[in-house]
Amino acid sequence: MKKFSILFILILIIGCSSSKPYIPPYEYSENQLAKLLYDRAITYQEQGNYDLSIIEFRHFIDYYPKIYYADEAQLNIAKCYQALRQFNEAINNYRILLQRYKQSDHKVEAIYRLGECYQESNKLQQATKSYLLIIKKYSTTDWAKKSKEKIEELSNKFPRSKWLKKLNKTANKMYRKSQKK
User: Which top CATH class is 28-105?
Assistant: First the structure.
């Protein structure tokens, strides 16, 4: 009976342990499987096979969430959905990146692309909020210039929209002011 209970406890402990390997971020280059998985996802994305790319990036994030490229994988998932014109999914995935990877180098790009998705979904106020946020907080980046251009584009597309004209003037002032610093 004792042997049976010890065996049962041992099986329970082994069964409850995570099957996902933990690889510290600094060992990324040593982990060939993670690199292979990430590279395969990138290849699918470059070939325009976005569905397979999404699956591979998700697999990468599921198994290697603490690895350096996890935030980039999340960004690429959102980009794939955006390329597939599935804007609600893209928006959700850009938001995940912004919430889960707050210190990501891809944060500003995610905000900009979030604005693009809102714009494509005809949610113009949300799109312009994203663009304005970039101009306010990240004025020295190329994304700020692109954001200013997007607001100008919207203002020109809807010339009768008073709020867009006003917003365009505000964005231009903010951008010029930030460039003088």
Answer: mainly alpha
Interatomic CA distance for residues 78 and 71, integer angstroms: 11
- For the chain, helix, strand, coil in percent to 5 are 80, 0, 20
State the CB neighbour count (10 A cutoff) for residue 172. 15
Residue reference for tokens 């930030």: 178
Q: What is the pLDDT of residues 30-82, one digit of tens each?
A: 477 888 999 999 999 999 999 999 999 999 999 888 777 899 999 999 999 99
Task: State the Cα–Cα distance between residues 36 and 31, nearest whole angstrom.
Answer: 9
Contact 70, 37 (CB under 8 A): no
The CA distance from 7 to 9, in Å, is 5
Q: How far apart are CA 143 and CA 134, in angstroms?
A: 7
Please report, as a single letter, which amino acid is at residue 103.
Q
What would you report as the CA-atom Rg of the chain, rounded to the nearest whole angstrom?
A: 22
